[in-house]
Amino acid sequence: MTRRVALSVDDVPVEIDYFVQSFIDHTIGGMAGALEGVVEIGSLDVSIKGDKVVVDINGKAIALNPFVNRLVKSTLDGLLLPLKGVCSTDGVKLHIDRRLPAQQALPGCQVAEGTLPDPSSVFSG
Fold first, then answer.
1. 75 CB neighbour count, 10 Å cutoff
2. CA distance 57 to 41
3. What is the strand order of the sheet 12-13 is part of?
4. Most buried in the list 2, 26, 41, 116, measured by CB within 10 Å?
5. In this model, does residue 31 exceed pLDDT 90?
6. How far is the C-alpha of 23 from the C-alpha of 25, rounded, in Å?
7. For residue 43, what are the contacts with CB-CB under 8 A and spacing of at least 6?
8. What's the CA gap between 3 and 38, in Å, rounded?
């Protein structure tokens, strides 16, 4: 399900392997999916500055009550602090993108449709 997970701490990108990407996606994505009013997650952005957690789902900011803010912060602390190179979670930016490549256009850019080869032409003998 995960298409891309990007993580930075204090504006420094953190390399994460497939297992960690999937684990973060399923854990944080599951928490976000349980929030009231969330139907389907195409993209999920979580940022932490100090003790303040900001969650954007599909480009829309989601209000967190103090309990949920602490729960997300504590969960991310537990997930990220064991990672190599992560010493603090006071400046975290996490981006999870579950959309198909044609839906992952950068702001102000258009994605060309039909740019992938026909699978039958790739595997034809």
1. 15
2. 6
3. 12-13, 4-9, 91-97, 43-49, 52-57, 60-62
4. 41
5. yes
6. 5
7. 56, 57, 58, 59, 95, 96, 97, 98, 99
8. 19
Residue indicated by tokens 């420094």: 12
Considering only CA atoms, which of 87, 84, 94, 92 is closest in space to residue 57?
94
Q: What is the average per-residue pLDDT within 77-102?
A: 90
Q: Could you tell me the pLDDT band of residue 54, with boundaries at 50, 70 and 90? A: very high
Answer positive or negative: Cα dihedral of 56, 32, 62, 12: negative
Task: Count CB-CB contacts under 10 A for residue 107.
Answer: 5
Amino acid of residue 123:
F
Query: What is the four-CA torsion angle of 78, 83, 85, 87, rounded to 10 degrees?
Result: 10
